[in-house]
Amino acid sequence: MNMNPIVKSRPLFIVLFLTLSLFVQAQKIRTVSNASDPYIFFVPDNMSQAEARQVAVQRAQIDLLAKEFGTTISQSTTSYVNVQGDETSKSFTVLGTTDVKGEWIETIGEPEIERSFENGQFILTVRIKGKAREIIRAKTLFQTKVLRNDPLSSVESTDFKDGDKFFLSFETPASGYLAVYLVDASQTASCLLPYRSSKTGNVSVQANTDYIFFSEGHAKPLFDARDVDPYELYCDGQSETDYLYIIFSPNPFIKAADAATATSSDGYDLPRTLSATEFRKWLSTNLTKDTQMQQEVKTIKITR
User: Fold this and answer.
1) Taking Cα atoms as reference points, which of 270, 174, 178, 165 lies closest to residue 222?
2) Which residues, 6 or more positions from 71, have their beta carbon under 8 angstroms from its beta carbon?
3) Nearest Cα to 111, choosing from 173, 39, 15?
């Protein structure tokens, strides 16, 4: 009599085991390269050399992911009917989106970028190698906006003048954990969030809540105003291109091991820092271990 439940449970155990095995295989990280089919980027006239290189590398990654894992194309059609008196008019709007079914985990070595000039236009040819994996489930679609000078602005701005104030708007449909880093032209990664006063290695955020970070007037509900680190952005030369990493996961994670930085020569308090190389190693390790972790990278331009 006692054997029946055990016998009946075996097929279920086998199914669960097979399902788990297939899931682990689908999540396997593979090494990818476009050495035999490099990506070609035509540089717009209004784009700086540094920005062009960054955009070319990012697009080379996306192009390689699409070739390795494919894309998902979705389309929706909306019809509108407008009645004015005896006249009725109809219009249709078609929206299409294409999503890459893979994610970039880590770049192996330095991308090889060849610069050429043809028919009056600069061209960058990018060869890149890295680690990537297939996306097999939808991820949390959080929303972010970089705000300049006005924390209540509804318009995102990633172009800053020397000394402009910097804010970040963030909202997520699912609760989770957040960290924010800025990698500057000197290849230094600054930990902007968690704040320097934080005793934890991440920031816990709740679903469906509008957050404005780096604003003392909008510290609640997570912080007191005295805990907030307000930031102004400066560049060393006439211009600088930095990269803002916004990292989110529904699972707890701990920020990278960084070090306190001395006050600047101008008397400004500086965020905790580590090298960009060490930061990317930390990010790669966490992306590998946590399949639900995701990053958004924004290009920040600063000019005098």
Assistant:
1) 178
2) 98, 99, 100, 101
3) 39
Dump the DSSP string for 62-127: HHHHHHHH-EEEEEEEEEEEEEETTEEEEEEEEEEEEEESEEEEEE-SPPEEEEEEETTEEEEEEE
- The full length of the chain comes to 304
Question: CB burial class (10 A; 0-12, 13-18, 19+) of residue 45?
Answer: exposed
Starting at the edge strand found earlier in the chain, the sheet holding 39-42 runs 39-42, 121-127, 112-118
Helices (H), the chain: 3-26, 49-69, 276-289
DSSP 145: E
Q: What is the pLDDT of residues 53-104, one digit of tens each?
A: 888 888 898 899 889 888 765 444 444 445 455 565 544 444 444 567 788 8
Going from the C-alpha of 75 to that of each of 72, 98, 136, 164, the distances in angstroms are 10, 9, 20, 40
Which pLDDT score, from 0 to 100, does residue 77 have?
Answer: 42
